[in-house]
Amino acid sequence: MRVTTAFSYHNTYNMSNNTDVHVAPSEMHEQQSLRALRRFDIGDVISPFSASQILAQPNYLTIQLSENEHIMLQPEWLQYTNHSCNPNAFFNIETMQLECVRPINTGEEITFFYPSTEWSMDQPFICKCNSVHCIGYIRGAKEMADKDLANYRLSPFILRKLRELE
Fold it and tell me: How far apart are CA 87 and CA 100, in angstroms?
């Protein structure tokens, strides 16, 4: 069976190879979101990913791998993994897998902490995640307090950059 998800402002994405997630309206934001079609436990791989493009500069859809490498995600529907200050997923840039970092129930939005992979963000924003742990203003890890980053899993690149600041 072929499954596709259509969006009013994007192309149609073929999700026929994935029966674990789908794209649907977010309950937190006025945008689309990636949602679980089954339960995920800590350590589960939600999806492998790769780079459809490697850019020298960040944009609001990229994941940062190194100083001058920012990837556009493949499969493209991973771009709907929104931010939360209480994330349930992590983009592991070493294994190139989106991993579950806290239990995700069927129907729950899959989220990650944007500064976990972004040193300097293209578009900082006011967070609307409504988490009791909400940081408020989300920007790259470079501009965040150590105490705010201490509770999150961070990419090796971000950890290296933080060590350079010490």
Answer: 9
